[in-house]
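Box 3.1. Reading complex inputs
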Amino acid sequence: MIIVMAGMLFLGRIKASWYEERVRLLASMCTFVRMARESIAYLSLPPDGIVAAASGRQDMKNVAFLRELAASDIASEGFLTPWSKALSSLPLNEDERALLLSWGAVLGKSDRDSQIFSCDGALCALEKFKNDAAAEASKQGRMWTSLGAIGGVFAVIMLV
Amino acid sequence: MQKDLVKVMDNSFSSAASVLPPRLQRYLLSVPDKLTREASEIRLRTDSLIALTVRGKTVLLTDGDAPRTDRETMEEIFLRLCRNSVYSHRDEIASGYVTAPGGHRVGICGRAVTQNGIITSVADISSLNIRISRRHAETAEELMRLLIGRNAVSSFLLYGPPLSGKTTVLRELAYGLAKKGVRVAVVDERRELAEHSSVCMDVFSGYPRKQGIEQALRLFSPEVIVFDELGNRDDTDSLLAAVNAGAAVITTAHAPDIDSLKGRKFMHDAVCGGIFNYFIQLTSGERPGRIAAIYDGDGVRIEDCCNDNCYGGDAFSGADKSVMV
């Protein structure tokens, strides 16, 4: 009976963790875009240099989209193609994906001031998405954890 | 396919052509070797055929398969040149060029974007001129043999008309000296002379000349300072600072002959002020990058040329002590 309860709770947590994963992903995106902005503003690093610098950070080491970007030849093929490929498998909604793609389409293509402007705009929108996702994760997390607990109790009652 | 391209084309030409999209590189593979071996420039214009500059003459590639470079292709080439990072090359673009991998300088022209009368960027690229950087190792070795003594390096100025290989010879000289253990500081304003990190030289990549020379002198105690294109009064002041600090200077200047060199207002001090021990004239046209003549520090001709590396003239004896330090 304890196993059944634990199992239902676990399933509830898995569902809740999907929402938490989205929050972590959007937080990584914010960090990446912020790094890009600073790299462009102070070092004029090209996109492949930005990816390399971001990949070297301790807090970004396990970020999947960075690993995929680092493995591609951005200097030759541009940033957009590997960027859209990296985004395709991520749990992003339509608005988030469209924003990131439009930011990626501009990266490297224009002068520094335009790049900084583009980064600032993307960052502002991403922060909002991240805050919305965090609120959603909190709500969904409580709901799924509770559902898991209730489901576990119900299953025990049915078994008894 | 990329390996095939490199194998068949002349190395310098293939290195310069590598900034082009693969379809244009494949086309250039079909151009006769005698053209690609002697081409000094690849010229591209919007909605036009590709042209090569061969021995000073323009050769338009007009065979049946010859592609025209449309606006989208020019844009694509420009992005490839900038390694898909236009903002990283802002200063170069505003100066009208980008240095491609391999040290090939690519001239850019189009619609200037200006601010307070100063060009800040170039839009609607209409022409690109890829200057093929070829090795002139023999010339550099000859100069080192003649002009570098046991205990000191002479200061000298390489000059010649455009496409005479001045920058290439300068690059070879810098590496050659550094490999011999000379402390070489390269002020590489246009990023053409050295890779930004070099194991044997101190490279000031992208530094404005004056600041680069000042910092090299102040912080790196160079025996030789190398920079390209002596161009204005600030450069002459920097030269004097370097020489007064005990460093030799090796640089280049645009001039068809020694009299034009001496005749320029700001150059007069540099040329006649005893800064340089030698003036080396390089050839252009059919055989660029060869030594045409050597003049001493007073602008007096020493010899016409040096052995068979030269463009015409009598052989020069390398054992002649008058040119050894």
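In summary: The longest strand of chain B covers residues 118-131.
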